[in-house]
Amino acid sequence: MSKKDEKTNVMRILDQKKIPYKSYNYLQTGAVNGMEVAQALGEDPGMVFKTLVTVGKSKTNYVFVVPVNKELNLKKAAHSVGEKSIEMIKQKELLPLTGYIHGGCSPIGMKKQFATTIDRSVEEYGRIIFSAGKIGFQVEVSLEDLKKVIRYGLDDIAE
């Protein structure tokens, strides 16, 4: 199997649940940050999302998914999950907690299902592009189909 046809765990999970998706491979582009990835894919940065893992004051972990052209508003995010405050987890905690490395974190296929909130702006598209769980790979699925794989809420969490 060539690198281009490589399947990630996220793709295998989507296949297993018979969920249609479009996969993207941007390995050869050298894109690193979210904006570069959106550009490499030729997609609107408002439709390409990054997955952020946080910890609340209660020590509970939360996942937030926001467009690559925006930042997570920690106040809004904390409010959306009923926490006094939240902060990003330390990068070294990401792999043991989720099974993913920085830059390849996906809301699908984490070691444990965390409360997940996606920025409401995704409703403009009805589809979402996010990491396929490995640097260099993205998947695009409809919001309806995403509901079949993970539980998530929509809220205004980005700025």
Describe the protein's architecture and organization.
The chain starts with 8 loop residues before the first helix and ends with a strand. It has about 160 residues and is of the alpha/beta class. The chain has 5 helices and 8 strands. A 5-stranded mixed β-sheet has the order 4-2-3-5-8. It has a 3-stranded antiparallel β-sheet with strand order 1-7-6. It has helices at about 10-15, 35-40, 75-80, 90-100, 145, and strands at about 20-25, 50-55, 60-65, 85-90, 115-120, 125-130, 135-140, 150-155.
What is the topological layout?
Layout: H1 9-16, E1 22-25, H2 34-41, E2 49-56, E3 61-67, H3 74-80, E4 86-88, H4 91-98, E5 115-119, E6 127-131, E7 137-142, H5 143-146, E8 152-155
Parallel strand pairs: 3-5, 5-8
Antiparallel strand pairs: 1-7, 2-3, 2-4, 6-7
Element-by-element helix/strand order: HEHEEHEHEEEHE
Order of strands across the widest beta sheet? 4-2-3-5-8
Portion in beta strands: 25-35%
Uncertain runs are none
| Span between termini | 41 Å
What portion of residues is helical? Answer: 10-25%
What composes the largest sheet? Answer: 5 strands, mixed
Number of helices: 5
Structural class: alpha/beta
pLDDT averaged residue by residue: 95
Determine the oligomeric state from the structure: single chain
Shape: globular
Radius of gyration: 15 Å
Work out the number of β strands: 8
